[in-house]
Predict the 3D structure of the following.
Amino acid sequence: MNRRDFITTVAVSGGSAYAAMKALGLLEKPATAQSPSQRGSFQLQPNGRGKRVIILGAGLAGMACAYELGKAGYDCTILEARSRAGGRCWTLRGGDKFTDTLGQTQTVEFDSGLYLNPGPARIPQEHVTLDYCREFGVAVEVKENLNRREYYYKTQNAGPLSGQKVRAREAITDIRGYISELLAKAISQDAINAPLTTEDKEKLVAFLKTYGNLSPDLFYKGSSRRGFINYPSAGLQPGSQSDPYDLSALIQLGFANYEAFEQQMTMLQPVGGIDQIAKAFERKVSERITFQAEVKEIRKTPNGVSIVYTNSSGRKQQIKGDYCICTIPLPVLTSIPSDFSLDMKQAIDNVATLYARAGKCGLQFRRRFWEEDEKIFGGITWTDQNISQIWYPSEGYLSNKGILVGYYQFDDTKVGTLSPAQRLSLALEQGNNIHPQYRKEFEKGVTLYWPTIPYNLGGWAVYINDARQKYYAKLNEPDDNIYLCGEHVSYLTGWMAGALESARLVSSKINRLVAK
């Protein structure tokens, strides 16, 4: 029996629907819901007592450590290799320039007011990042992360929907209807193994009729929730409802992994660019930062630490302190001579190889065709092409021009290793398959590959296989008076909140130790 016949048989025969749904993975037990942590205000006891802390890196983790420890009386010095603060919390605007490790220089030519966040770009509602935005007065706005007018577009292995732009709203509505149909029939024929009373079953079937928009005989035949061919209007225009996709086609399309916990509805972003967060931190700790200070050695002393670095003139300098908080990304840290213990070096070296090969592309268009022609206001289109994702902006609605994230890759070996011009060409070529307006409306763009960005050499830590079990605990332990800090020592890898939560944890550890 082929897939289509199998599914048709299941739909008609309620008696075997439970087993069929289980085989298809449609009745997986949901994860237990968890409430956001009740962090409240964070305040260290004033235990600094003149202790000196050397912080390596003026990203969010480093600046948050300096900010929190500074309030508690610690003498903090931040050494930052770049001439700017923020690390990956970075925004590219017209006139900016950057050079990668291959010597390729790009000049950003975006129009005034337009920008790309090449690193982090969104804030889940549960994240501590918002606590700092509130504390520092950083204005935020809604980041439309999921928009059911966005598309799922697959070019292969997607059955009859291969090469078709499928609206998320249509696919989600239809699959919800079909699942409701299968479950309602299974319940009605006592084919589901669950401790339900007769009243429970009646109420659940009634719920499923509404939830899935089922017919009285428990069939899903389509729903106005998925949209219309012609929208309802005035006069004698009730609208023409579109027909549902076939269940088999939806299963083959596959889109169940696009709504992870942190990727769900309302997210937020700083008004004017993600670097508004970095700038707010910098205003708090600017007098503590030494820029263009590239760390060359990390050494232990009998009573603390010694850091050797080169200043803006290239001359070697040495600074000593009681503690060192190292926020340097592990792919960079692994090549810096140090006195780390053998176990710590092993952990650093192994996790350093696991960083995301992430890349982004920003495309400026002379017309916001995604809004004007396709009525898409924010959200992300997903595709199995190399570009992976297209992000629609959540700012500047109804204005003339705008910037799309032309791709966002997490394992970018096929795109990232191309030259900037080739990456841009690929983004336009593959994006044009989804939006044929690309070629006509495109003006300028910029691409970025994090493994070739100096002082990062990768996106973020990705703990795969047994790496977290083997190395994570060691990375979280102090190595004498040296503490690692950043998103790579959190369970929020890649998120700004990972860096900030890590900063709070490390600051607390040092403060408690000093208080003894």
